Amino acid sequence: MKQENINKFVEEIWDNIFWEDMEIAFYKDGDNWIRQQGSKGADEDEIIYTLPLSFSYWGDSYFITTDEDDEPIKDENMKGDFMEDMTSQIKRDLDL
């Protein structure tokens, strides 16, 4: 698995966090797709990693803050840490 593919996957996670009832799937060929959480497709055997994108999953993460209206937002200053942490976790989980 190329580092570039993992980076794209993690970037896609960051960009789409809080997309309720959706998940992201990472494929053996390095591609990734967002789909409805829990859905299954004909290519399930090609998926090597999935993560939910819903606030209920990510809401208590270190990079979540609130705005002036008390609405949750991603702390853009924490993006680098998120990218590094998620990349490390994915590599560990996939034994890379």
What would your notes on this structure say?
With 96 residues, this protein is of the alpha+beta class. Helices cover 34% and strands 24% of the residues. The protein has helices spanning 3-16, 55-58, 79-93; strands at residues 22-27, 32-36, 47-52, 64-66, 72-74. The chain has a 3-stranded antiparallel β-sheet, with helices on one face. Strands 4-5 form a two-stranded antiparallel sheet. It starts with a helix and ends with a helix.
Keywords:
two-stranded antiparallel ribbon; single chain; 5 strands; alpha+beta; 3 helices
Overall helicity: 25-40%
Strand line-up of the largest beta sheet:
2-1-3
Q: What integer is the average pLDDT? A: 94
Name the beta content range.
15-25%
**Number of helical segments?**
3
Class from secondary-structure proportions: alpha+beta
**Number of DSSP E strands:** 5
Q: Helices and strands, in N-to-C order?
A: HEEEHEEH
Low-confidence stretches: none
The shape is globular
Radius of gyration: 14 Å
Indicate the multimeric state: single chain
Structure, briefly:
With 96 residues, this protein is α+β, with helices and mostly antiparallel strands. It has helices at 3-16, 55-58, 79-93; strands spanning 22-27, 32-36, 47-52, 64-66, 72-74.
